[in-house]
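Milestone M4 deliverable, item 7.
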Amino acid sequence: MAARLRSWQIIDGILLSCFFLITPATVIISSIANSARQGVQVEAPGAQAEQKVQAAAQAKQPSRESVEREVHRRLNERPELGVLVALLFAGFLSLIGLSLWNLALGGIRLFEGKPFLPKIGRPRGPAWGGREILRIVIAALLLEQGIVWVQWTVNWRSGVPLDSSGMTLAATLAIDGMIFLAAWRLLNRPAVPAADGNGPRAGRFWPSVRLGMGTYFIFLPMLIIGMILLAAALEWLNHKPEVQPVFEIYFKEERAAILGWLTLLVAVVGPVAEELFFRGLLYGWLRSRIGIFRGLLVSAFFFALLHGQVVAFFPILALGLLLGWVYERSGSLAAPIAVHVFHNSGMLFLAFVIKQLAAGLPIL
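Output delivered:
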């Protein structure tokens, strides 16, 4: 046991050393590269003129009315776009109906003296600690920086820049894959069973999925209202938020292979890996240390922080709290995974409709 402990200490030392050596080097080289690019721009007056022309073109943004007229024209010319909009509207009405239905079921349970949301299980006791979670985080950061170094090396040696969309997609898939494998291995360790014997691998898949989706439908109107209020506030402040890199690629990319892999990443791989880590590992460990409420809040905070969206931080925080709560009530990771996959798939379909309606318009 002592020898094994020393080996893990050596591994931790190597990971931390690599992290604290590579991270400053990455920042320094990135700063040098940005300074070099700025120097090249200063020395090239033609490039400056081109940038001024582009800035002038961007300044002449079309009015909102002209954009709306263009969208209406496309709807009239392409009936399939009207079908997409109709499907989107029908899906929205269906979600509202499901929300009302699940609210009614919750009200009936309250009338009968039962909890508003049923509890069919509880998460099992963790067989891992904060050290294993920290190793996964450091390894993911090192993998991300390693891919950046590979891209810089290839660009420097060949003089041909790599495909940015493909590199972003490959890096995200590699990181999510590594997190999935590490989290899956830890979650399948023998653990102290929960009081009712219902752990993540218990045979309650469909009841957990139904509980998770029902809870999601109940709180979905609040999420939608929050997003609408946020969008109205941003428009009032005349602030255009940054788009997540994966969705920026989705809006700009036209290659079928890239779009296919991106859809798989956003709708399946990402949600599964994130739920295994944030709800399975992080929340499972925090729950045993600081309790349910604080564990939910801290895990949701880091979940929102990971997405790097300052403007959408609080909506993502609310989603993280919801995902943690359905895991707590079901005791199975099937519940938050199902909710996360459904939510991301819906956002991806919405992005697809916007892309088809507004292709080439300066609103993306």
